[in-house]
Amino acid sequence: MGGLFPYLTRRNIVQLTGAQALIKSLEMEGVEVVFGLPGGAILPVYDPLIDSSVRHVLVRHEQGAGHMAEGYALATGRPGVAMVTSGPGATNIVTPIGNAHMDSTPLVVITGQVSSAAIGTDAFQECDITGITMGITKHNFLVKSAHEIPRAVAAAFHIATTGRPGPVLVDVPKDVTQSMMEWWYPSSIEELDLPGYHPVVELDEDRVAQAVELIRAAERPVLYVGGGTLKSHAAAQLRAFAERTGMPVVTTLMARGAFPDSHPQHLGMPGMHGMYAAVTAIQKCDLLISLGARFDDRVTGKIPAFAPHAKVIHVDIDKAEFNKVRRADVSIRSNVAAVLSAWDEHQARPQDLDVWWKEIDAWRETYPLVYDEPVEGAPLRPQFVIESIARAAAPGTIVASGVGQHQMWASQFWKFEEPGTWVNSGGAGTMGFGVPAAIGAKAGRPESVVWCIDGDGCFQMTAQELVTARAEGIPIKVAILNNAYLGMVRQWQEMFYDERYSEVYLSPDLPDYVKWAEAMGCVGLRATNIEEMHAAIATANSINDVPVVIDFRTDSSEKVFPMVAAGASNDDIMVHPLQREPQ
Amino acid sequence: MNTPEPFLGATSHSPVRHHILSVLVENKAGVLARVAGLFARRGFNIYSLAVAPAETKARFSRITIVVDAESAPLEQIVEQLDKLVNVVAISDIAPKDALERELLLATIKTDVDNRTSLLDVVGNYGAAIVDVDAGSVTLMLAGTPAACDELERELENYTTVELHRTGRVALPRLGKAAAAAVPD
């Protein structure tokens, strides 16, 4: 056991600086890696870091640190940690904090702050980061004394990882990290002094039984699986429950990997770009069992028209989700795993589902995922590129993505088989998430292959972190689906704005992605046809010491289907043109 | 700052659309901002808000919030509030179960002609004179929000220099559910 002052226990008569106490606190929490970038106000904390067992990944922009911490958390299930300085350092990490808040990702962000005496004076690199992040953190702390550092750090990890997970920010003024304290570390929840925080409640057996009654009466049930199922590590219980009851399963964008895509009961992703059978099964079901999902507008479409015949069982650890969007017939505050186990104990089983499955199978057969045949000599089909990478990928490969068309295609065409293999920005829709999130995932699971499926627009937002990846020895693989456009916006302009393309063209050649990759110490490859595509994928898979970037030249006119237009009913789902009736 | 529209729910003869939340919070810097910020970003309307240390003084404060229960379902307001880590307990007091009180302070210009009638108003409402000088009087009323509303209307007949109301505080009527209790 190495680290800073390895002889320290939870209470020692020894004086440490606040900075040493902060680093020691991170060690006490079992932190293995911190993503960050130093600056004036956080300088004292970077000194004891040299002697710490905690690995530090030096990013090139603080936004990268935040998304790396998110990628780490999504791939490992452990909290991600980022550390930045005050002022612009802190504001640069606001986007990842907001992103983690939307997706309930456990994050602890340490920010330096100007000295206590300077707070409120508009000092150099001062900003009210606790005020700025009040609405996008689960909680935040401004630490007032060195003695309070261990409590704040321990509370931050406790809050970030329990109940509905989320980001917690700890703001530490420079004089606090420079002053002395007698070392201690909280040894119980009580010592955290959180009288208003009660993340765990006992399972309400009456409600469990009411839900069982609804399940027993159901003839057309659907298991609507959300991110909370992954957060509560309930994939095994979900599979057991689904197989025992024979119910169809849909997994939201946040839940991809919670149930194997290869499983015959899996209908895929619901929502705006969901699978036809998944969307339609929800529309026609008589019982919708929501497991850690939150009825996001990208899933529901027009709310009054969403699952109009369904009774709803809503399971969530956060009771504020109940009746927020859709009124539940039975709501159960719990983590998903505990409820599924309780239902198994009750032997909850629906009615015979043969008729229901016949309908569902007809939808699956009529409207599978399709795309236009790849054409030799024409630009690559982005869907085909993703399928080709997936086919050549080892089992357990982790996929990160940015936000846009490529993200939807990745979710549709990659086959996810296990939790922690899909690293994605859902609720916030943060372009540029992919590259740094992939780096964070690879840092957390170096034995796994990590692909970032990115768009050319997203790549340009955070590509500089490939310098970090090369310098830190984090060999990720990046597939840029380069269609020279902000593709999803282009798709909307084509479909809903009379093909008036406003400010969406990016050019396929500017920047030169191969040269850019090489300048950042990565291997850069380009694929303009099918042969080059297969060759580039094979080359990328053979390189495991440095990051690889492939510039895939894809068809600009490709659109994501199926699609439910914003605000439309899910009944009005638009299928791929190949599947439409001739007019 | 805009003055809110007269709040009709406060009077006994109008339909009730307000609810009173008695919110016990940790007495820490920024907690009021967290509560107010939550209401702002979720689009919940606050009609009035009163904050002071709770019975155990140093550790907790009580925030009495009168919310417009038409701006959002009350359940959502309560559950979102409950997620704030510094919020220790919330009790929702239905208007019919609430003992609501508010303090009104007003400085009114006086002269020989109106001094007597103003003193009558003070007497009729059970208000008190708390300060006097040659040309003005400061009066005080501690009473129900409805009584404060009525006095305020009565005072429109005079020249008001300044008028302040505290926003209401409330406790449940005896025999009704207790307000958010301070933990042991």
What can you tell me about this protein's structure?
The complex is a heterodimer of chains A (583) and B (184). Chain A has 583 residues and is α/β, with parallel strands linked by helices. Chain A folds into 3 domains: 11-192, Thiamin diphosphate (ThDP)-binding fold, Pyr/PP domains (Rossmann fold, 3-Layer(aba) Sandwich); 205-366, Rossmann fold (3-Layer(aba) Sandwich), CATH 3.40.50; 382-553, 3-Layer(aba) Sandwich (Rossmann fold), CATH 3.40.50. Helix content of chain A is 36%, strand content 17%. Chain A has 23 helices and 20 strands. In chain A, the strands form 4 sheets. In chain A, strands 3-2-4-5-7-6 form a 6-stranded parallel beta sheet, with helices on both faces. In chain A, helix 1 crosses helix 2, helix 1 packs parallel to helix 7 and helix 16 (382-392) crosses helix 17. The longest helix of chain A is centred in the N-terminal third of the chain and has 15 residues, at 62-76. Chain A is globular. Chain B is an alpha+beta fold and 184 residues long. Chain B folds into 2 domains: 8-97, 2-Layer Sandwich (Alpha-Beta Plaits); 99-169, Alpha-Beta Plaits, CATH 3.30.70. Chain B contains 4 helices and 9 strands. Chain B has helices spanning 31-42, 74-83, 115-125, 145-154, and strands spanning 18-26, 46-53, 60-68, 87-93, 98-109, 128-132, 136-143, 160-165, 169-172. In chain B, strands 5, 6, 7, 8 and 9 form a 5-stranded antiparallel beta sheet that branches. A 4-stranded antiparallel beta sheet of chain B has the order 2-3-1-4, with helices on one face. In chain B, strand 6 (128-132) and strand 7 form a beta hairpin. The longest helix of chain B has 12 residues, at 31-42. Chain B is elongated. Chain B starts with 17 loop residues before the first strand and ends in a 12-residue tail after the last strand. The A-B interface holds A 130-131, 134-135, 138-139, 142, 159, 194-197, 318-320, 322-324 and B 25-26, 29-30, 33-34, 37-38, 41, 73, 75-76, 79-80, 82-89, 183.
